[in-house]
Design brief:
This protein is mainly beta. The strands form nine sheets. The chain has a 22-stranded mixed beta sheet, with no helix packed on it. A five-stranded parallel beta sheet has the order 37-39-41-43-44, with no helix packed on it. A four-stranded mixed beta sheet has the order 1-6-8-10. The protein is globular, with a radius of gyration of 32 Å. About 40% of the residues are buried. Bound molecules: 2-acetamido-2-deoxy-beta-D-glucopyranose (NAG) (7 copies). One 2-acetamido-2-deoxy-beta-D-glucopyranose (NAG) binds near residues 553, 575 and 577. The site of one 2-acetamido-2-deoxy-beta-D-glucopyranose has 3 residues, from loops. It is found in: Cell membrane. This is Leucine-rich repeat-containing N-terminal plant-type domain-containing protein. One of its GO terms (cellular component) is plasma membrane.
Length: about 650
């Protein structure tokens, strides 16, 4: 009898197992949701969606189901695919179907970094009551973040950052320095942050950076008591930082930078608030008032940037107690007073930047205790140092010394010749330096950026500069330097292709050297400015060897002879300034190949003949060609035949 029962039970169990494997198909709602989603996508470089066939959606790539209910719990299709064997940035193009919200049991929706996904966040998103993680960053989604998102009470991570036109902004914008105002608003999330956000009390990560959000940060944001990482940077948010942020007791990362926030910094109001805050960025806003002395309560603070605000008053002496601090950016404010002695206690400090404020001297000797300091930027204050304090050159870790506009007089100090850490960056621009450029400069074998512009230096450039193997930026403009530039064109030639990207020697008295352009291998050079010098002779065809050049300014010299057509081999050239020289002959017809040219000036030379007809030359205003002996044709008046 007992045996029979066992058999029956076994039979029953087998039947159930069989039925479950048949019903392995999908919940009809889930299937419809997934099919509509797939239907909206017309391109998928990962090849994941083409394999979505049949009804067993739980077996589809990127889909996971609850093994008890059979309902879809995860749609996991990130653009960046990393396995143990390979990494791959895939792309999907198409619309995000609102039917995705039919997947009522969804806990994870990861469509992050697919680059080409467009459309909006469906207002029906609030139906996904079980959602814990929502990743829609790095796409082309736009429109408002719907209020219904406040219904996702289980949400732990919300990443909606970087929805912009096409992935990322180009890193190099050539010499069009003003172009950094270029913003690609239209393909980002817009509107304000819904007030309903404060109901998401399980939220740990909230990332909305690089969108076009406007309005205020919700007043009761402090309700998000388990929030750890909070990034609203690079939006157009206005108003004050809500006082309630004091209640974000779990916060460790807070980035509110690059918005239009105003008012005072309202935190921390008491000891023990935000005890885990390690990374704080408030730069590029319009914050006013003082740096709160209460910052001393933020005991975990490691990296903080308050740059480019309107903060005033003295640097609070209490900052010296922030023992975890490694990077402190205070530049571009209205801070005054002296640097407090207590700064010398920040034994872990790696970077200190207080540039562009109204800090007065003298520098406290206590700073000589900053054993780990690598970067010191005190440029453009009211320091009036007269000379670089000896202990600066003796700081054991210092490799980036930025003391522009500090009232430094006399010769470039020999103490910089052999510092404990090799100098990588030296900016002593806009001071009152006199004398020559010392030959020992060539021995700074780690130097990648040298800025001695706007001084009264008056030697020739020593031959030793050509030993600067890793030099990338060389700015000596507005001095009284003389002689030949030839050594400059040999800098870093032992490095394949050369390392220099930027040379500015404008406003000096160099008489020769231009004929050596391209003698070395400056294949990475993007910016060359020799304007306002005394260069004579001819521009050699070897200029075409500077393949990466985007910006060439040789204006206000005494260069002559014909313009070489080889200049047009510089296919990246965006700016070409040759005005106020003595160039003769015709404009080479090859100039029509300069397709990227955005800025041209050939005025006040001795050019003749017809301007080659066509773009880009015809697009420039007349003023780019005037003051020549006999130019004609578009955009000037027609040639008389
Ligand atoms: C079912 O899922 C749970 C959690 O998702 C897991 O721990 C369990 O091992 C799964 N069971 C089976 C039989 O796969
Ligand atoms: C912070 O939280 C406390 C209690 O949870 C509450 O009384 C207070 O009003 C909150 N402060 C702010 C500024 O929201
Ligand atoms: C800078 O200091 C010198 C003396 O070291 C003084 O003569 C000069 O007036 C000061 N300049 C300013 C702007 O404070
Ligand atoms: C060099 O310093 C000057 C004056 O401080 C500044 O205007 C210029 O931008 C600097 N050059 C580079 C390449 O940063
Ligand atoms: C530049 O140097 C020349 C002599 O080498 C001198 O006559 C001239 O005054 C100097 N100009 C400046 C601005 O220092
Ligand atoms: C070259 O330098 C001069 C003087 O410093 C400056 O006026 C000019 O704008 C620079 N040219 C370019 C193209 O940046
Ligand atoms: C510039 O390009 C032309 C045509 O491709 C070529 O004949 C010439 O040698 C190039 N000039 C230089 C200096 O590379």
């Amino acid at each position: 009898m007992g045996c029979q029962m066992l058999w029956l039970w076994l039979l029953l169990a087998l039947t159930i197992m069989a039925t479950t494997s048949i019903v392995q198909g999908c919940d009809p709602g889930d299937l419809k949701g997934l099919a509509s989603f797939r239907g909206g996508i017309h391109m998928d470089t990962s090849g994941r969606l083409v394999k979505w066939a049949g009804r067993s959606c739980c077996r589809w790539q990127g889909v996971a189901c609850n093994n008890r209910t059979g309902r879809v719990t995860e749609v996991h299709l990130p653009g960046f695919i990393a396995t143990t064997d390979f990494v791959f940035q895939s792309q999907m193009e198409g619309w995000l179907s609102p039917s995705i919200t039919l997947l009522a049991s969804l806990e994870v929706l990861d469509l992050g970094g697919l680059v080409g996904l467009s459309g909006r966040i469906p207002t029906s998103i609030g139906r996904l009551k079980n959602l814990k993680r929502l990743y829609l960053y790095g796409n082309k989604l736009r429109g408002p973040v719907p209020d219904s998102i406040g219904k996702l009470l289980k949400l732990e991570e919300l990443h909606l950052h970087e929805n912009r036109l096409s992935g990322y902004l180009p890193t190099s914008i050539g010499c069009l320095k003003n172009l950094n105002a270029l913003l690609l608003h239209s393909n980002r999330f817009t509107g304000s942050i819904p007030g309903s956000f404060s109901k998401l009390t399980n939220l740990m990560h909230l990332d909305l950076h690089s969108n076009s959000l406007i309005g205020n940060i919700p007043e009761d944001i402090g309700e998000l008591s388990v929030l750890e990482e909070f990034d609203l940077s690079e939006n157009f948010l206005t108003g004050k930082i809500p006082v309630s942020v004091n209640n974000l007791t779990s916060i460790s990362v807070m980035y509110l930078d690059s918005n239009h926030l105003e008012g005072e910094i309202p935190f921390p109001s008491n000891y023990g608030q935000m005890p885990m805050l390690g990374f704080l960025r408030l730069q590029n806003n319009q914050l006013r008032g003082k740096i709160p002395p209460n910052f001393v309560y933020l005991v975990s603070l490691q990296r903080v940037s308050l740059e480019n605000n309107k903060l005033e008053g003295a640097i609070p002496s209490s900052l010296g107690n922030l023992q975890a601090l490694t990077e402190l950016y205070l530049g571009g404010n209205k801070l005054s007073g002296v640097i407090p002695k207590s700064i010398g206690q920040l034994s872990r400090l790696i970077l200190l930047s207080i540039s562009r404020n109204s800090i007065q001297g003298p520098l406290p000797y206590e700073m000589s205790a900053l054993q780990n300091l690598q970067t010191l930027d005190l440029s453009f204050n009211s320091l009036n140092l007269s000379s670089i304090p000896r202990w600066v050159a003796e700081l054991p870790s210092l490799s980036r010394i930025l003391l522009a506009g500090c009232g430094i007089e006399g010769r470039i100090p020999d103490s910089l010749r052999s510092t404990p850490s090799p100098i990588q960056e030296l900016d002593l621009s806009a001071n009152y330096l006199t004398g020559g450029i010392p030959a020992w400069i060539g021995g700074l074998n780690q130097l990648y950026s040298l800025n001695l512009s706007r001084n009264h230096l008056s030697s020739s450039i020593p031959a030793s500069v050509s030993d600067l193997e890793v030099l990338g930026v060389f700015d000596l403009h507005s001095n009284n330097l003389t002689g030949s530039l030839e050594h400059v064109f040999n800098i870093g030639t032992s490095f394949p292709g050369g390392s220099l990207t930027y040379i500015d020697l404008s406003y000096n008295s160099f008489t020769s050297g231009v004929e050596q352009i391209g003698a070395g291998t400056l294949e990475r050079l993007e910016y060359l400015n020799l304007s306002h010098n005394l260069q004579e002779g001819q521009l050699p065809t070897s200029v075409a060897k500077l393949k990466a050049l985007k910006c060439l300014d040789l204006s206000h010299n005494k260069l002559g002879f014909g313009l070489v057509g080889d200049l047009a081999n510089l296919s990246h050239l965006e700016t070409l300034k040759l005005q106020r020289n003595r160039f003769t002959g015709k404009i080479p017809v090859e100039f029509l190949n300069l397709k990227n040219l955005k800025d041209l000036d050939l005025s006040d030379n001795l050019l003749v003949g017809e301007i080659p007809a066509g773009k880009p030359l015809s697009d420039f205003p007349q003023s780019c060609f005037t003051g020549n002996r006999g130019l004609c044709g578009k955009p000037l008046s027609p040639c008389k035949s």
